[in-house]
């Protein structure tokens, strides 16, 4: 396999070892997982979360009492989610990993498809808010001490650029580290330095690649446009994505304490940690009239 | 961006198979996968490519009677 960033050609074995080494290094240097952690992996069944679960299963040391569990959110997206849930169930069953599935209908009273009628253009924002909340609830119920997501290098770089395009300085300055100050389950992103293409190749080499459908709502997403734009830049100017991530870290340092409030408050309706009076889920509930 | 070596001028038939099972036959002299993708308007970073069931890297030269499968890396968790 050709590794674009290093210019090296790697055989299958060394390509897999290289991915494992880089993910292990990210986990170690950022102290993402420590002994006695109970790590909940957000497993949609798509490529990124599948690779994440597989890598953590391969990499986590035995004898330190670290436990892996998988949690899957069924948003209720017809023609899409059933396939990925089936894939998640098969993977966890093969690896012998405890698996919890929770649905939007259980938590919020209806499916995403229903919530989005007439609001399709806001699909990713609405789904993102509800899915984050669902993941936190599922992780709490499972007794997790860390919540691991499959965000890759492309995702992270796209988020930086999206926040720049939206002029969303608070999000741009938000600390991406593991520290949660005890307010919520810390989120970790062990694949944040691995590109989307490397993940796809890794899965292919592990015989774990499944061609699954794409979410029907992605056609409305700003991220889709940013993805094409950024991927074009990365192709012409290798390193663009990493430079964006490095810029974000510098901005975080320069803005520390000046843009975001020093400490989080609590939502006046549900009590969850948030920076305003109401958390985003309760704001949505008001919009939906729930 | 891509310069053809002088000896690679004979066009050959090549089959491109896309993720949606759409197939396209192109006439092309032997060339790296990256060049073929570029010419059909695909960013090599957004796909993985296999030949006869085996994954191949972007600088692999493909040509005569090869069936090239182009797998789009779908986005969305």
Describe this protein's structure.
The complex is a heterodimer of chains A (290) and B (77). Chain A is an alpha/beta fold and 290 residues long. Chain A has one domain (2-259): Rossmann fold (3-Layer(aba) Sandwich), CATH 3.40.50. Chain A contains 12 helices and 9 strands. In chain A, strands 5-4-3-6-7 form a 5-stranded parallel β-sheet, sandwiched between helices. The longest helix of chain A is centred in the middle third of the chain and has 19 residues, at 123-141. Chain A is globular. Chain B has 77 residues and is mainly beta. In chain B, the strands form 2 sheets. A 5-stranded mixed β-sheet of chain B has the order 2-1-7-4-5, with no helix packed on it. Chain B has a two-stranded antiparallel sheet with strand order 3-6. Helices cover 9% and strands 40% of the residues of chain B. Chain B is globular, with a radius of gyration of 12 Å. Chain B has one domain: Ubiquitin-like (UB roll) (Roll). At the A-B interface, helix 2, helix 9 and helix 10 of A face loops of B.
Topology:
The complex is a heterodimer of chains A (290) and B (77).
Chain A: E1 2-3, E2 8-9, H1 12-29, E3 38-42, H2 47-59, E4 67-74, H3 81-95, E5 98-103, H4 104-108, H5 112-115, H6 123-141, E6 146-148, H7 153-166, H8 169-173, E7 187-188, H9 196-205, H10 222-236, H11 240-255, E8 265-266, E9 273-274, H12 280-288
Parallel strand pairs in A: 3-4, 3-6, 4-5, 6-7
Antiparallel strand pairs in A: 1-2, 8-9
Helix pairs in contact in A: 1-9, 2-9, 7-10, 7-11
Chain B: E1 12-18, E2 23-28, E3 31-32, H1 33-39, E4 47-51, E5 54-56, E6 61-62, E7 67-72
